[in-house]
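Q: Predict the assembly, please.
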Amino acid sequence: MEKLSKLPKLYLVVVFIILYAPIFYLIFYSFNSGGGMSNFESFTLEHYAAVFEDTRLIVILINTIVVALLSALVSTAIGVLGALAIVFMRNKAMRKAVLSLNNILIVSPDVIIGASFLILFTMIGLKLGFASVLISHIAFSIPIVVIMVLPKLQEMSPTLIDAALDLGASKRDVLTRVIIPFIKPGILAGFFLALTYSLDDFAVTFFVTGNGFSTLSVEIYSMARAGITLTINALSGLIFLVTVVLVIGYYAITRKAKTPHSEVKK
Amino acid sequence: MNNKPLRPLYTIPYAAWILLFVIAPIALIIYYSFFDLAGHFTFDNYKNFFSSVYLKLTISSFWYAFLITLFTLLFSYPTAYFLTKTKHKQLWLLLIIIPSWINLLLKTYAFIGLFGLYGPINALLETMGIGKQQILFTDFSFVFVSVYIFIPFMILPIFNSLDKLNPALIDASRDLGANSWTTFRRVIWPLTLNGVKSGIQVVFIPALSLFMITRLIAGNKVITLGTAIEQQFLVTQNWGMGSTIAVFLILFMFIIMLITSSNDRGTTINGKIK
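A: Predicted assembly structure:
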């Protein structure tokens, strides 16, 4: 493979600067004692203090985390069952149809998901708020879990299940002692992606959230529409930190997951 | 796989999900598109969609989505290409992906400061002698921020297809006397077309339906199909018209999916012929 010459290297450097500049710009001004994002007066942590003193914001933060964790858990459970259902489907055309239905929510624009869920919840008579947001997040996370788990299931040799059955394992044992351990990396990846999808979602939540309930994205949107407040900057500093930790965590999980995987194969 | 452990029971939640959250919502959108504000059955929404206002909106929405996709591709392809040539390419790729995990709203909000009248870009323009410019609330800022947001999503599929490319093919092309440009045009580009197609797919469809960037950065000057849907649903409360626009957006989505769907067999055949 040829080595990179100077120009491409410079290009990559520029790309990285552009990608990170807005993020570091936000974080930089989160320490500004002045009111805006234009001139840096002096270093202060008051905006971070403001984040932690704002009980409304803390409640919203907790809401966001609770919705993300719950929706990721439930969607992982349903998604794994869905992936199992697809893999054990005999009819090829049927499998293909179910897979395309599965992918519709992944490719659909958020606005359409949000609008259609809004109609659905109103028709059913569900009050908009925590429940509607949670249900929507579960709904749009399920296909992602399926997509993450499916390749692992397809990778698994059917002889593994036959062997377990021959050795006297019950069908339940096959599921909990053979299949689940084998597809664990896929399940973890699915759970993690569902978590980040939920934390990151704005458009869908914006449609199905009522007056009394809000998540971080929706709150940031309304704050940003009102103008620049350095509280958002402080918040973004904290979120950036958490994101980096999550990414490292995810990397560690997927790296580690490769080891038990090979153990099963033995 | 030829065994069926507990099939009916464990299929229920997933099947229920497909019915309730995939099929029912689309059906409801189509159903609602036939009702007017007063709740009467009507085809007026469809008639209205083909009026000049909405037609113009659709065309401008497509134009912006096209521009956003084009610039994202022009920027991302070289990035992905150079990335595959770096030493620790997986690490660099991860670094490219990290910004896409930062909340979309925060990144957009950053540009309000960056592009603002007293922001660093304007300060730079002033020292260069160009003077302050209104950057925020223009078409330029809308396209720029959108491209910024979509870059990682375009790089990823292109990187993957470039990474899979057999380097022997490039050597072969060189040995047969092709220069770099010909090698790129006749070998590398066709073989990575699938990555480009899925990149276009993940950028173009969302670009048609952006609404929060238009509100925060374009100052309501740019109206995309997404903005129109949001407006009809949450501001005007005209669910019928909103649903009609959504029906067309779904239609466009399927058409784009059909055009950009990567036909694996076709490309290998192409590769063989060439």
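DSSP finds 14 helices and no strands in chain B. Chain B touches chain A through 82 residues (CB under 8 Å).
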